[in-house]
Automatic annotation (TrEMBL):
Pfam families: Peptidase_M14, Propep_M14
Residues annotated as domain Peptidase M14: 128-421
EC top class named in words: hydrolase
Catalytic activity entry: leukotriene C4 + H2O = leukotriene F4 + glycine; Release of a C-terminal amino acid, but little or no action with -Asp, -Glu, -Arg, -Lys or -Pro
UniProt protein name: Carboxypeptidase A1
Presence of keyword Hydrolase: yes
UniProt-listed GO biological process terms: proteolysis
Organism: Panthera pardus
Enzyme Commission number: 3.4.17.1
InterPro entries, alphabetized: CARBOXYPEPT_ZN_1, CARBOXYPEPT_ZN_2, CPA_M14_CPD, M14A-like_propep, M14A_act_pep, Peptidase_M14
Annotated signal sequence range: 1-23
GO molecular function, a single term: metallocarboxypeptidase activity
SUPFAM superfamilies, per the entry: Protease propeptides/inhibitors, Zn-dependent exopeptidases
Lineage: Eukaryota, Metazoa, Chordata, Craniata, Vertebrata
PROSITE patterns reported for this sequence: CARBOXYPEPT_ZN_1 (PS00132), CARBOXYPEPT_ZN_2 (PS00133), PEPTIDASE_M14 (PS52035)
Length: 426
């Protein structure tokens, strides 16, 4: 496919040309701005900006509490208008990313350089981003290497017909209490799927070696859904790296996709999601309209014995618990808060990465129809959401060199939550 012996630069030019031929969305001259809104009035101003559809803004971190940063990708043609708007309303901003496309080019270059196919999970490169096909073949290798410990379940098919797979880690028993972990429900959060791959390998390495994980797997099962939004993920590789939603069509709209983290049956339709199919937080026509969501709902209900449910996103470095749709504290708030504190302490012990923690609504903003509000409503007490690295320097475009450190530190927090779940049966 590529001329033999060509240089890295040559490969890069080749890949950019290939991208153009394949009709990939380009982000040349797009900037990511970090806006600071000091008070509620300024937050409202940013919300006005958000409603100006013609600007085609992409909020990476939406407006929330006064004082918390707001990150927005601004297409090149809108940059002057947005900066003028911010200056006119006294909103401060800094440029976080000068040119989004140059980060995307670096990411592509890195992927091309390390794309060799591996024949086992030992030679698999965990320090680069992978396509859906590569991740699916990784899962098959892992299952083949550890048939006594790992199996692959298909819980459904996506809107576009792709299989939806979950890895089951089990040492036996019958419908044991279980821990669920999912990554990648928002497709552009690439460090999450990459971390999911690393977690899968880590579980097979640590069983029988690490005392805690061995104890966990001797009485509980772990379910891991690495690519929770396969259609969206495939689309981030083929057409638009910034795609977040599913790829379902909505009748009466030319806009595609539903936010699968606003589509769950908990506070569905309340404030904290959009009814406009053209926005990135579109909730869908009805709860569970997205087959990627419904497949998990059906699985969780039919399993009936899931004790911890952890849904992993990026970015912002947060560990969150219910609720997202209402301000009322969750009945288990104190225990959830204490456990979150222990988990982020364990996480920070490795590289010093600091995570904040708290309820979704208090820590970021109101979000309705989110995953863990639903799982909590089903009686799954240990329901958590992570937002992994970073805090915005690269945002969704985290360099591949940070994949393994991110996964390693996150694993310490996951292990803390799983161990607590094991030791506090309910
Ligand atoms: Zn997300």
């Amino acid at each position: 496919m590529f001329p033999a012996g060509c240089s890295m630069r040559g490969l890069l030019i080749w890949s950019v040309l290939l991208g153009a031929v394949l009709g990939k969305e380009d982000f040349v001259g797009h900037q990511v701005l970090r806006i600071s809104a000091a008070d509620e009035a300024q937050v409202q101003k940013v919300k006005e900006l958000e409603d100006l559809e013609h600007l085609q803004l992409d909020f990476w971190r939406g407006p929330g509490q006064p004082g918390s940063p707001i990150d927005v990708r601004v297409p090149f043609p809108s940059i002057q208008a947005v900066k003028a708007f911010l200056e006119a309303h006294g909103l401060g901003y800094t440029i976080m990313i000068e040119d989004v496309q140059s980060l995307l080019d670096e990411e592509q270059e890195q992927m091309f350089a390390f794309q060799a196919r591996s024949r086992s999970t030992d030679t698999f490169n965990y320090a680069t981003y992978h396509t859906l096909e590569e991740i699916y073949s990784f899962m098959d290798m892992l299952v083949a290497e550890h048939p006594q410990l790992v199996s692959k379940l298909q819980i459904g098919n996506t809107y576009e017909g792709r299989p939806i797979y979950v890895l089951k880690f089990s040492t036996g028993g019958n419908n044991r209490p279980a821990i669920w972990i999912d990554t990648g429900i928002h497709s552009r959060e690439w460090v999450t799927q990459a971390s999911g791959v690393w977690f899968a390998k880590k579980i097979t390495q640590d069983y029988g070696q690490d005392f805690t994980l061995t104890a966990i797997l001797d009485s509980m099962d772990i379910f891991l859904e690495i690519v929770t939004n396969p259609d969206g993920f495939a689309f981030t590789h083929s057409k638009n790296r910034m795609w977040r939603k599913t790829r379902s069509l909505t009748t009466g709209s030319s806009c595609v996709g539903v936010d699968p983290n606003r589509n769950w049956d908990a506070g569905f339709g309340m404030a904290g999601a959009s009814s406009n199919p053209c926005t990135d937080t579109y909730r869908g026509k009805f709860a569970n309209s997205e087959v990627e969501v419904k497949s998990i709902v059906d699985f969780v209900k039919s399993h009936g014995n899931i004790k911890a449910f952890i849904s992993i996103h990026s970015y912002s470095q947060l560990l969150l618990y219910p609720y997202g749709y209402k301000a009322e504290p969750a009945p288990d708030r104190d225990e959830l808060d204490q456990l979150a504190k222990s988990a982020v302490t364990a996480l920070a012990s490795l590289y010093g990465t600091k995570f904040k923690y708290g309820s979704i609504i208090k820590t970021i903003y109101q979000a309705s129809g989110s995953t863990i509000d639903w799982t909590y409503s089903q009686g799954i007490k240990y329901s958590y959401t992570f937002e992994l690295r970073d805090t915005g320097r690269y945002g969704f475009l985290l360099p591949a060199s940070q994949i393994v450190p991110t996964a390693q530190e996150t694993w310490l927090a996951l292990r803390t939550i799983m161990e607590h779940t094991l030791n506090h049966p309910y």
